[in-house]
Amino acid sequence: xxxxxxxxxxxxxxxxxxxxxxxxxxxxxxxxxxxxxxxxxxxxxxxxxxxxxxxxxxxxxxxxxxxxxxxxxxxxxxxxxxxxxxxxxxxxxxxxxxxxxxxxxxxxxxxxxxxxxxxxxxxxxxxxxxxxxxxxxxxxxxxxxxxxxxxxxxxxxxxxxxxxxxxxxxxx
Amino acid sequence: xxxxxxxxxxxxxxxxxxxxxxxxxxxxxxxxxxxxxxxxxxxxxxxxxxxxxxxxxxxxxxxxxxxxxxxxxxxxxxxxxxxxxxxxxxxxxxxxxxxxxxxxxxxxxxxxxxxxxxxxxxxxxxxxxxxxxxxxxxxxxxxxxxxxxxxx
Lengths: 172, 152
Description:
Chain A is α/β, with parallel strands linked by helices. Chain A has one domain (28-159): Glutaredoxin (3-Layer(aba) Sandwich). Chain A is 38% helix and 19% strand. Chain A is built from six helices and seven strands. Chain A is globular, with a radius of gyration of 19 Å. The mean pLDDT of chain A is 90. Chain B is an all-alpha fold. Chain B folds into two domains: 2-87, Helicase, Ruva Protein, domain 3 (Orthogonal Bundle), CATH 1.10.8.640; 90-152, no CATH class. Helix content of chain B is 62%, strand content 0%. Chain B contains six helices and no strands. Chain B has helices at 2-22, 28-32, 50-64, 69-80, 96-125, 139-150. Chain B is elongated and about 95 Å long. The model of chain B has no long low-confidence stretch (mean pLDDT 81). The interface between A and B is medium-sized, with 19 and 18 residues.
């Protein structure tokens, strides 16, 4: 009886200890996963963007704040194409709903579909939307929870990427 | 001819009944207790989150198309992955959710087997003298037996 209770307590403690994950910190490598693209038909990964600055945005079509930030994000991507790549990660979403969302907001940047939410879990997200600024080596530079309200907010968040790109441009 | 029609009708009833029993009509309330909300970590029936509402719309659409429960679950797995089914993972501590029922079944089967063997052994070891004499078949036999008993 005592052994049984001790074993049960042991299992519960083990479960609690193993579930206590902390988030990804600046400088840490950002997890990658090869996932289906949106629209479907191919596969892609954050790994494919190695050598580029990336703004990874985790979103879902059922998420109202994601809808609110979409126009600003799309505008930011258009204005800074070449300096930084935006990668959308549609998580725990219906593919049909996600496609409608992309069409409605005329979003053209790369998208991968995290149907199960496992990748969002690997990224230690606590909700949607969440954004990650990732350097060309695949390490985290900054993390932002919640929606961006304006393009200026996104530019401020992505400033290290934009600054690095302007340094590389030839003078004159 | 009438006999042939009767046979066809009976077969239709029998096999129709079997088919409908194998593929019951799917219903949202039933499925809500068997699948998970994709973001809440609870059964779909317990959630009113926007993602859960979208999942309900998706299920209703499939029910309307006449899909059965298994087909709807397959479609949900294709959309959200296997976690959408209200089944625990088979890794780590969750593996015990699968292991414990199997062990319990094996132990219960062994207990039943042991009880049966013990009962049969006890039955065999019972002394035949304890058994009552066979019931006489007729009055004459009864009389003979009593005569033997009282030595008359």
